[in-house]
Amino acid sequence: MCVAVTLLLCAAMSQTAVDASAPAAVPALRSVMDYGARPDGANDNTAAFQQALDAAEAVNGGVVEAPAGRYRFEGSLSVPPNVTLRGTFTYAPSHAGIRDAGAQQLPVYGSVLEPVGGAGDKDGTPFITLQANAVLQGFTIHYSDQKPDADAPTPYPYCIAMRGNNPAVLDLQLLNPYQGIDASHNQRALVRNIHGQPIYIGLYVDAIYDIGRVENVHWNPWWSMGSKVYQWQMENGIGFLFGKTDWHYVHNTFCFGYNVGYKFTKTERGGTNGNFLGIGADDCYTSLVVEQSEPMGILITNGEFVSFHGPDPTMVRVEKTHTGTVRFVNCAFWGPARRNAVIDGLGTVGFSDCTFMQWGHERKDEKFASAPLPSIDVLGGSVILNANEFLENKPQVRIGPEVERAIVTNNLVTGKVDIQSEAPRGRTVIKDNLGSPTDRKFNKALPKRKDYRAKRLRD
Q1: FRET pair for 54, CA 20 to 30 Å: which of 12, 212, 355, 407?
Q2: CATH numbers and ranges of domains, the chain
Q3: Average pLDDT in the 304-311 region?
Q4: What is the DSSP letter of 320?
Q5: What is the per-residue burial (b if ≥16 Cβ within 10 Å, else e) of 261-271?
Q6: For residues 442 and 7, what is the distance between their CA atoms, to the nearest angstrom?
Q7: Vertex 455, ends 452 and 459: CA angle to 5°?
Q8: In 109-211, which ranges are E strands?
């Protein structure tokens, strides 16, 4: 009995000795304040933030927090692999967190990062670069030296660059960067809950070979609507720019007040294919431009596109360079604009279950012919128009002589069906398109329709 007790006591003492010599637990959460950060809007915080981030990387990752305050940066930051840099916002901060300061809006709540470095160099090092599995979350980013009343904005590098595999940016307000997010050269990146007003380019995506995700990203001119810089943005800016992608998923995105809302182009790595659901562009000179797409297509569903400013306001423009496939389903197009869509190239463009309205509006300095403008002007390629509704008693479709193929069927029209084709015989199918009761022949066929409609309204 005594021997057994002795052995147990020795084992316990041995275990206690091992525990006492074990290294102290490494904190998974650290604050930039512990590394000398000063949230006063005046002192440079580049070194303090980077030291905190590097310390987290040294222990295989963790979370670095920045309390509420204004943090000035004269240099750039790199968020290492497996490290999260987090501010105070749980969800994307809204314009309720900024105040009017003359001609511009300034942030007053939460964790605010204020970069000043890189002015004048749009191709310089981004303010924040995320490495593999890194996360940036919960900040307002404000370029305090950018002035809305200047004749043109000051160029800066991208605010955020995403690199490696699985980086993420979440819950941010990019109040006024010259260039917003460069989500290129990565795989499976996540961009979610981002608001703000990037001036030149909002989001750029290219060189993606595994599916990326963009969710709830909205660009609105909260910072400088009506200013000289905002006018420059409308003449030069691009809300969303896509190059090479591999089935990107883009959901609930919006932009207001750009030269081009969404632009799909071809880079040296290729063109776009992806799934775009619930996207919108309002008051853009051209809501959506397709220079190129991949053969498997760009799928756009439940979109809304509005254009009514600029020299030739148009909702959709497919350029002569296009050889791929684009499909619009259940989308709405309105203005007042010159045309809802201009289609060219050698590819295929389809519209189904869409609504078109407010086209045919000329500009006072118009140099075009005086012939009425159609809603959809097809200059080249192949087009499929099926089960759409045209809500103006104006020409709906014009098919040019160089169009390869066109199918225009089962569409509803307000007033007279007016579909014009200059394509050679055998290249088009135009049938079963139905005018509205304002069509005299239709009224004659249904003489009691007015009474029927009145009864339905009363009921």
Answers
A1: 212
A2: 27-234 (2.160.20), 237-361+371-459 (2.160.20)
A3: 96
A4: T
A5: bbbbbbeeebb
A6: 104
A7: 140
A8: 111-115, 128-130, 135-137, 140-141, 158-162, 164-165, 168-174, 179-182, 186-187, 190-196, 201-205
Interatomic CA distance for residues 281 and 259, integer angstroms: 10
Tokens, residue 419: 């579909």
What are the structure tokens assigned to 457, written together?
Answer: 């309204």
For the chain, helix (H) and strand (E) counts, in that order, are 5, 41
pLDDT in tens, 235-268: 999 999 999 999 999 999 999 999 999 999 999 9
> What token pair was written down for 204?
């750029």
Is 0.85 topped by the overall pTM? Answer: yes
- Residues 101-139: pLDDT tens digits? 665 667 878 999 999 999 999 999 999 999 999 999 999
Residue by residue, DSSP assigns 341-410 as EEE-SSSEEEEES-EE-S--PPPTT--S-SSPPPSEEE-SEEEEEES-EE-SSS--EEE-TTEEEEEEES
What are the CA-CA distances from residue 221 to residues 98, 150, 175 (Å)? 13, 16, 9
Half-sphere CA count of 306, side-chain side, radius 13 A? 10
Helix (H, G, I), strand (E, B) or coil at 261: strand
Cα–Cα distance list, 214 to 210, 306, 313 (Å): 13, 21, 27
Give the tokens for residue 344: 């060219």
User: ∠ CA 211-354-373 to the nearest 5 degrees?
Assistant: 115
CA distance 340 to 313: 9
Instruction: Summarize pLDDT for 172-199 with one digit per residue, the tens.
Output: 999 999 999 999 999 999 999 999 999 9
Cβ atoms of 332 and 308 closer than 8 Å: no
